[in-house]
Amino acid sequence: VGPTNGLTEEQQAELARRDSAIKSRFTDILMTTIRTYPDSAYTERLLKLSRSKAVTGTMRGNAFKTAVTCATDRQRSEIVEQFDALDHKQKNYLLKQYSALSDPRWLGLARQTLLTDPSAVTETVGLLRSDGSPEALDVMIDCLQEIRTASEASGVVAPKNLKTMMQLVITLHLSSYPAARRSCNRCITSHVKQIAELTQKSMTTAYR
C-alpha cells in the first residue's frame, strides 16, 4: 500500500499513538485541576464520560472519581441509586469513599455488592474487615447466612456465590466474634455436601 498524505501506514499509526498520548495527558491534567477545585457543575458531564465506551477504562475511572469529588449530596444520592449499573472498580471506589466518611449508606451498599457482584467481593470484604465494627461483621454474617440458606434450598451453591462464600468464611472463621464462628459452623455442618466441603477448604486456607 502506498503512502497517504506523504506518510506510510507505520508513520500514520505512530502519529495517531502520539496524538492519543497527548490527549490522555491533557485529560489527566484537567481531571487533577477539577479535583483540586471541585465544582458540581461538572458532575453530570463527568458521569457521562465515565460511562462512555469511546474512551479508555483509565479515563472512565478518572472521570468517575472526579465526578464523585464534585458531586453535591443530592448528586451522590443519584449515583447511589444507579449503583448496580457501575462497574466493579467504580463500586469499589464509591465504597471506599463512603467507608472512609463513615457514611451510613456504605454498609447497605457493601451488602448489596456481596450478594450481586462477585467481581467486587475481594475488595468489599477487605473494607468490611478493616472497618471491624459489629455492624460490618453483621453484614458479612447476614450475607453468608443468606447464601447458605439459598444454597441449601437449591442443593447447590450458585456459581456467582462461590467466591463470595469462600471470602466470607475465610474472614469470619478468623474472627473472635461468637456469631461469626457460629455462622461458619452452620456451613460446615450443612447437609449440602458442597457447602460443607467449600467451608472446610476455606477454613484451611484462612490459616495459610
What does this 3D model show about the protein?
By secondary structure, the chain is mainly alpha-helical. Helices cover 75% and strands 0% of the residues. The protein has helices at residues 9-36, 43-50, 57-70, 73-81, 88-100, 106-116, 121-131, 134-154, 159-173, 178-188, 193-206. α6 packs antiparallel against α7 (121-131), α8 (134-154) packs across α9 (159-173) and α9 packs across α11. The longest helix has 28 residues, at 9-36. The chain is elongated and about 70 Å long. It starts with 8 loop residues before the first helix and ends with a helix. The mean pLDDT is 88.
Unreliable stretches (pLDDT < 50, length at least 5) are: none
Mean pLDDT: 88
Order of helices and strands: HHHHHHHHHHH
Q: How many alpha or pi helices?
A: 11
Number of strands: 0
Structural class: mainly alpha
Rg over CA atoms? 22 Å
Instruction: Please estimate the helix content.
Output: over 70%
Strand content: under 5%
Largest sheet: none
Shape: elongated
First-last Cα distance: 59 Å
